[in-house]
């Protein structure tokens, strides 16, 4: 993908440090205004919580998060009980630490297995479109229609638009990632952890995701 598209980053050394960038961006935002969507590993968020005051803010990481972040959306886990998913398993200590120490609300989502989207990208976008290229690469030759499960998309869709009429949520609980690799969610007085559920059929959610992807590409003229 990087070899096919122009970009400014020639190596990892050219990229800003993730935690420093988090701190810089958070400091500039109004209090309790930021929603963070995590669709990968949680190492950077763990480091953010442990970060020290710097040139951007005199607050430590946990205090900065508590002041600036409205909600953390994490793509991962099967609730109310299940085994840890890939995004947790590859850096389990960081996942445990973030879930146990995040000072504000967390919404978990494991939806996406039956929310299949992507076919319209092949049908309606030109071959040189960057989104179609990305889907083609990750789908591989065994999946030429580009339909894929939409775990990450659901997390981002909720993070940007909230529940709307597509989702419902179980809230008022506390999640724990156990040392044996299982996870539990229990109702808890004052608990700030919740998990997402579908309020509409999977195909309707998939249709919305495809429509948003297509319309964003059309607006960008690509």
Structure description:
- This protein is of the alpha/beta class and 222 residues long.
- Helix content is 39%, strand content 21%.
- The protein has helices at 18-28, 43-50, 61-68, 86-89, 92-101, 119-124, 130-139, 151-161, 202-220, and strands spanning 34-38, 69-75, 81-83, 106-109, 116-117, 148-149, 167-177, 182-187, 193-198.
- A seven-stranded mixed beta sheet has the order 1-2-4-9-7-8-3.
- Helix 1 packs across helix 2 (43-50) and helix 2 packs across helix 5 (92-101).
- The radius of gyration is 19 Å and the shape is globular.
Write the layout of secondary structure elements.
Layout lengths: L17 H11 L5 E5 L4 H8 L10 H8 E7 L5 E3 L2 H4 L2 H10 L4 E4 L6 E2 L1 H6 L5 H10 L8 E2 L1 H11 L5 E11 L4 E6 L5 E6 L3 H19 L2
Average of pLDDT: 90
- Secondary structure tally: strands: 9
Figure out the total of helices: 9
CA-based gyration radius? 19 Å
Low-pLDDT segments = none
State the shape: globular
- Helix percentage: 25-40%
SS-based structural class?
alpha/beta
Order of helices and strands: HEHHEEHHEEHHEHEEEH
The main sheet comes to: 7 strands, mixed
